[in-house]
């Protein structure tokens, strides 16, 4: 393994670690020798994720905390626990998010709007404001945005709004912390084979098939989850040490 892609001796936090992109990133980090602090609101799934990581990589030290990223105090307690356990944080992946319901703008309820904005945007903000004072100089943070943060997706206005804002937040955090060589980037997945995509296709029912949903991508398929998490690993690694304040599409050409 290239030394710049090795995470041996490093410590990473991951939100949304119980499944999807967050879990795959955690598995890949464990494979590269990292120690992990994993957070998710789903207690049972988070425990299974920890068991899977340790089962596959017995030498990996991985702690978990049930965290609702909407709650600042819970996020701060988790980061404090991470520092107490490992003494440092070398990087962070903020992957917690929801898609929300499909509806045109006039039919989005206040509750539906608040849910998506609070988890996707406020949750990322809460994570960053707890992480940034605690990461080492030269750390790398990756926020999971979406192609919905770079383009428009009809009937998903709260989701698109939240992900556009995450990209703006990412760039602002990068500017504020460049003096410490802390890099902050975002990735923008298109359709990816995750539980979120499954829930989305179930929500639209017979209106569209999964293949039709993915047809906007030039490869005419959804991404495998590792095809997305590989970009996260690159941005966390020393290979990307001069890259910051960028939102990378990982979408098979969605935006062409």
Automatic annotation (TrEMBL):
Keyword Amino-acid biosynthesis attached: no
Pfam families assigned: adh_short_C2 (PF13561)
UniProt xrefs under InterPro entries: NAD(P)-bd_dom_sf (IPR036291), Sc_DH/Rdtase_CS (IPR020904), SDR_fam (IPR002347)
UniProt entry keywords in alphabetical sequence: NADP, Oxidoreductase
Keyword NADP: yes
Family to which this protein belongs: Belongs to the short-chain dehydrogenases/reductases (SDR) family.
Protein name listed in UniProt: Uncharacterized protein
